[in-house]
């Protein structure tokens, strides 16, 4: 049984335009993923594709003007708001994208120690600080005294000592030096190898491929493909979705071919397949309705032309 399941998740935000005219912007639609114990699932996609919103929806920390539909399950049970509150920071831990998640009024060492649920909190905090090259004096510093890289390492430390069964890491490595990046990625792999689960949200496909088991590719708020890391090789022949193939071939080490056009804004989503306006394979059928995600060649894809 997957430890975390997201089925047909949709998230929209209520906004006002032209005075008091109320509109709903659909930012996530029909998004589905599963995460198994012992697995690292890397979630990749352009900015605005819904990666961070997925993390916040799982944890129940979306803003008050958000409306959601779909089902999120943890260990086979539906995540109600009350259950999200009970699990957050305990069995499901977040490494957030923004360092503003650190409490500005609490010393950094104490913040990390409060995340420890069992064992010697002080010893665990010292050990994780050593792993992430944080000096002893950081223990008594406040967040405003830290550099951006130090703050990110403090956030990583908080998640790693929590004893959580699931870690959701939202862009955890920007601003870190290569040595710390390697250490953090190795820690995520070790965490999964010990039977827990990691969702790694990132723009960095190269780093994800070094440690992940599967890659989930997001586009305009939905999952377009889920593939094993071995599929990301050569010219992308083993990949299923046109966007995933184009994303892979756009990397500098591959063909470095840019993808024409741009991802649509949530207020201007096309009918039918969301990638159709940029897709060379698009037909009139693609304009009618968004394809369902389906199994194909030991992966998942949302495209009627994939074979």
TrEMBL record:
Protein's membrane topology: Peripheral membrane protein
Source superkingdom: Bacteria
Signal peptide extent: none
Any one annotated GO CC term: plasma membrane
Keywords of the record: ATP-binding, Cell membrane, Ion transport, Membrane, Nickel, Nickel transport, Nucleotide-binding, Translocase, Transport
Occurrences of domain ABC transporter (ranges): 4-245
InterPro entries referenced in this protein's UniProt entry, alphabetically: AAA+_ATPase, ABC_Ni/Peptide_Import, ABC_transporter-like_ATP-bd, ABC_transporter-like_CS, Oligopep_ABC_C, P-loop_NTPase
Subcellular location: Cell membrane
Reactions that this protein is recorded to catalyse: Ni(2+)(out) + ATP + H2O = Ni(2+)(in) + ADP + phosphate + H(+)
Coarse class of the protein's main subcellular location: membrane
EC number(s) given by UniProt: 7.2.2.11
Any one GO molecular function term: ATP hydrolysis activity
GO annotation terms (biological process): peptide transport
NCBIfam families: oligo_HPY (TIGR01727)
Record family assignment: Belongs to the ABC transporter superfamily.
Subunit structure: The complex is composed of two ATP-binding proteins (NikD and NikE), two transmembrane proteins (NikB and NikC) and a solute-binding protein (NikA).
This protein's name: Nickel import system ATP-binding protein NikD
Protein source organism: Siminovitchia acidinfaciens
